[in-house]
Write a structure and sequence with these properties.
Strand order of the largest sheet: 3-2-1-4-5-7-11
Helix content: 25-40%
Low-confidence stretches: none
CATH class of the largest domain: Alpha Beta
CATH superfamily of the largest domain: NAD(P)-binding Rossmann-like Domain
CATH topology of the largest domain: Rossmann fold
Radius of gyration: 19 Å
Bound molecules: NADP nicotinamide-adenine-dinucleotide phosphate, 2-acetamido-2-deoxy-beta-D-glucopyranose
GO cellular component, one term: cytoplasm
GO molecular function: aldehyde dehydrogenase (NAD+) activity
Strand content: 15-25%
Protein name: NAD(P)-binding domain-containing protein
Structural class: alpha/beta
Length: 327
């Protein structure tokens, strides 16, 4: 019975993953790691987790020691900071036991933006396919999640642990939990629009973004958890255990149009229409680079394992996903 450590338990994915694990594998001891002390009651009474540990992503020693005590570690909370993955992996390598530790990591399609700064669709941009190991080998720390991904791929190839990476497109939808997390994708987009005072797209906004509904992502993540636990030994490279999942590509202009209308109707923004702006006026930090670019990912390997997007488009979902959220 593999013991499982879940990092990022209170986010968009974590509550569902933890409930699913205790429902389908009640005999797998589950430890949940999070920093919000008010979440204890939920994990004790609803999830029925076996152990709760409070800590932050910055507590490298605590995280490493905990990882060392579990056979399976699922990180559904941190994909940007390589230090978190380093701490987890260092701990997993110290684990005493016959079987290798298994790391299941959630990464993001932000890695695959094409670097355009004019907001235009480019039909010749590279499409990053999980079936092509050469594509995955090119993942590097200059990419949004690439620092952590690189650390994990290297550890997987070195062979001391088994690694599985599910790389999800921008994730929408809502998942039942008392913590009402919008997920990092929505948090970035809505936070950016609110701080600008308008909803931006760049140029003609024809550039496309890959998206996935959280239910479709979770169904696949559950499949990978079962697969990873069943595979006692792995052959092949760590790149061959990388899975891209997305459901639909939408243009930034279409997305901004629905987002602007929704934020306006909630009384958060004065305009119900989005604004076409140059890159410099599309927000702070990494966000403009995302909005101005194309994100083209393809998941042939994930599809071969049965991945299929079933949920409705993000363009239909935005109003209901944001309906009950207090900005
Ligand atoms: N949502 C997307 O569009 C998307 C797309 C691709 C990949 N991803 C990646 O998938 C993973 C899950 O995303 P998500 O949208 O489910 O994330 P999320 O809802 O933002 O959840 C993040 C989780 O991490 C916790 N957390 C954040 N900073 C922390 C810290 N310093 N110490 C301890 N805990 C901390 C949060 O806890 P609190 O509740 O205490 O804040 C929360 O449980 C992330 O790695 C994300 O980058 C997300
Ligand atoms: C990672 O750790 C190094 C060394 O402790 C530190 O200098 C760096 O700021 C950390 N990176 C992040 C993203 O926190």
């Amino acid at each position: 019975m593999p013991s499982v450590l879940l990092v990022g338990a209170t986010g968009l994915l974590g509550p569902s993953i933890s409930r699913h694990l205790k429902e389908t594998h009640p005999d797998w001891p589950l430890t949940v790691y999070f920093r919000n002390p008010e979440a204890d009651n939920y994990f004790n009474t609803v999830v029925k987790a076996d152990k709760i540990v409070h800590g932050t992503f910055e507590d490298a020693t605590k995280l490493g020691d905990l990882a060392a005590e579990h056979e399976v570690v699922i990180n559904s909370g941190s994909s940007f900071d390589p230090n978190v993955s380093r701490a987890i992996i260092d701990g997993m390598k110290r684990r005493k036991g016959i079987e290798k530790g298994t790391l299941i990591h959630i990464s993001g399609g932000g890695n695959f933006i094409d670097g355009r700064t004019d907001g235009k669709f480019n039909p010749t941009s590279k499409v990053w396919n999980d079936m092509n190991e050469d594509d995955i080998r090119q993942i590097n720390p200059s990419m949004l999640n690439g620092g952590a991904d690189r650390v994990i791929l290297d550890a997987g190839n070195e062979g001391s642990i088994k690694t599985y990476i599910v790389c999800e497109a921008l994730t929408y939808g809502s998942a039942p939990s008392p913590f009402s997390s919008l997920g990092i994708g929505y948090k970035l987009l809505t936070g950016n629009a609110i701080s600008l005072g308008y909803t931006p797209y760049v140029g003609d906004g024809s550039a496309v973004l890959s998206t996935i509904h959280v239910n479709d992502a979770l169904t696949f993540i559950y499949k990978i958890i079962d697969l990873a636990v069943a595979q006692k030994e792995v052959t092949g490279s760590a790149e061959s255990r990388w899975y891209n999942i997305y459901g639909e590509r939408v243009s930034w202009k279409d997305l901004a149009t629905v987002l602007a209308k929704t934020l306006h109707s909630k009384g958060v923004l004065p305009d119900a229409e989005p604004r076409s702006v140059p890159l410099e006026q599309a927000g702070e930090g990494e966000i403009p680079k995302l909005i101005a670019a194309n994100m083209l990912m393809k998941g042939d390997r994930a599809e071969k394992l049965g991945f299929k997007a079933r949920e409705r488009s993000i363009l239909e979902h935005i109003p209901e996903d944001l309906a009950s959220y207090q900005f």
